[in-house]
Amino acid sequence: METTQITETINMVSEEHLDIRTVTMGISLLDTIAGTPQETAKNIYQKITTYAKNLVKVTQQIEREFGIPITNKRISVTPIALIAGKATPDEMLYYAHALDDAAKAVGVDFIGGYSALVQKGFANGDLALIKSLPRVLTETDLVMSSVNIGSTKAGINLDAIKLMGETIKAITDKSDTANAKMVVFANAVEDNPFMAGAFHGVSEADVVINVGVSGPGVVKRAIEKVKGESIQVVAETIKKTAFKITRVGQMVGALAAERLGVEFGIVDLSLAPTPARGDSVAEVLEEIGLEMVGTHGTTAALMLLNDAVKKGGVMASQRVGGLSGAFIPVSEDAGMIDAVKAGVLSLAKLEAMTAVCSVGLDMIAIPGETDATTIAAMIADEAAIGVQNNKTTAVRILPTNGAKVGDMIDYGGLLGTAPVMSVVEKSSAEFINRGGHIPAPIHSFKN
Amino acid sequence: MAKAVVTVIGKDKPGIIAGVSKTLSDHNINILDVSQTIMSDIFTMSMLVSLAQLDEEFNKLQDDLNLLGKQLTVEIHTQREEIFDAMSRV
């Protein structure tokens, strides 16, 4: 055992914020469907509290043994729209409260999977779920929601996008912060352990453990050591660092799964920032050589970072999955917040960055008077980037009533603080109001 | 048998090794390897120790060592060996 290795590991945790961001237990609810919503809700509560009973205890013990923080303990479940196929919007509350109550009973931080997959069209349960969102997200505490409105195979459901624009506005009218608990996806993945978008896909095993690892601070520190060297040295450095971080996730995930007696799913290596200084993706990009994130070259630096993280992670784990890459939320990243405040990082640049980052427009505050069709059009733009380029994209946008551009909105804890950003004021209403379905893109003949 | 690494980092003063060794011996724990240096007044030591049991005994040892760290105003980490292997070996 070499002392330098020991010191390196200890510094990664204590100074560079290396953490296991989440251990997420994915639980299938397909076998909980009963005759009435009340009975199903009871079964849901029963199944979750049975399998996840020891989740928090086991992960806390692992934290202790290895001296590595496991920041969140979470649960993801089968998209509830599939479980609640016959329900009315009011009846959806039974399901939502069953999830919320079960999450509280086992002591996890969040439960994800209040979700609908409507990339091709709506079934009854999908519509009921979307209509219930303003109530569910304000009447429950730990329930997280996602709606998938497009995919490379199915195209983009413009009707769903329009409806989500209106839903986001309706949620804002009830609460300034509840939209932080919902994300609109294109090409959603079925094994993502990160919130708000985690759900347990129907092709997954009954119960699995998925792990999300993070550590932008560790990557930043590694790049500091190769100042002035060529860009492929930077790529190699990121790869090696991502490898080390992912190995920890692999070890923790395998052990947690073994102790809980369930299958080990995937490791998701995502550089996910927190509001703490030194735990920022923006700072990594700046370390690569940008004066401030948002300037010219940001997209290229982010592309390199995202790709090198994936390459390093893939070899380090038995199964890499989820979103794996670099997240670029605004409110959760001190460097991004600085760049927005300085007027360097715009919504347009963020959109360009989402073409090469791991997800999309995330945790962005906008003025409350923004029209529902404008929000829908932002979702449509993001979906277009994802669907055309075969990647996951998402929108988690936070309109705030009464807020003006430049105001700071506090979402609490890991969700951070976001400056209200300006939105283009010209209307997209006629485009969105056409409704219908944008056809799936052609996969040959590309340029 | 599981192994753990105990690392101690802090300002050098009399009694650090004595304190750590005594705590380990109180828990009936065998020291397998020790490496210690002083770099510009900062004492750093890593010890490889064997653990008979994980769960409860490990937790008690960790609590006692954390307490000792506070008394000596040094930082003591007690971690299972595997985390260091995982990161630096394929």
Automatic annotation (TrEMBL), chain A:
SUPFAM superfamilies: PFL-like glycyl radical enzymes. It holds the Pfam family DUF711. Gene3D superfamilies: 3.20.70.20. InterPro entries: UPF0210. Belongs to the UPF0210 family. Homodimer. This is UPF0210 protein KII88_06335. It comes from Leuconostoc gelidum subsp. gelidum.
TrEMBL record, chain B:
Belongs to the UPF0237 family. Residues 5-79 form the ACT domain. NCBIfam families: PRK00194.1. InterPro entries: ACT-like_dom_sf, ACT_dom, UPF0237/GcvR_regulator, UPF0237_ACT. It comes from the Bacteria. This is UPF0237 protein KII88_06340. The lineage of its organism: Bacteria, Bacillati, Bacillota, Bacilli, Lactobacillales.
